[in-house]
# Entry
Amino acid sequence: MHAEPMINVRDVEASSRWYQELLGASSGHGGKDFEMLIHGEQLMLMLHAASGADHHPHIEEQGPVGKGVVLYFRVGQGLADAVDRAREMGADIRQGPSWNELAHQEELWVRDPDGYTVVLAGPADWAK
# Structure
């Protein structure tokens, strides 16, 4: 089993470009109302317009955009490259890269264009 989270965003196309650049992902759907971001052959994140899209009538009930969710992406050995991409694209780096003693892993914390906290995690012994 694996999670396929969906978050509300203000501008699906802009958020899609941001995540694609940061994570080396690709578009699996595309459009102004909904996006599926793919890494390799795996769906990793869905983006949904916070308002105005009519195919999910309860989407606006999910709370304010950018609040209540921390998105962790295990990038493993690719953390150094992800840090370089974050810096090059001018991402809002909040912390790191630094060692998280509790999680036993290196992490980079950034804020996405909608205010969501995004954590890029390096290798961890428990994450096989």
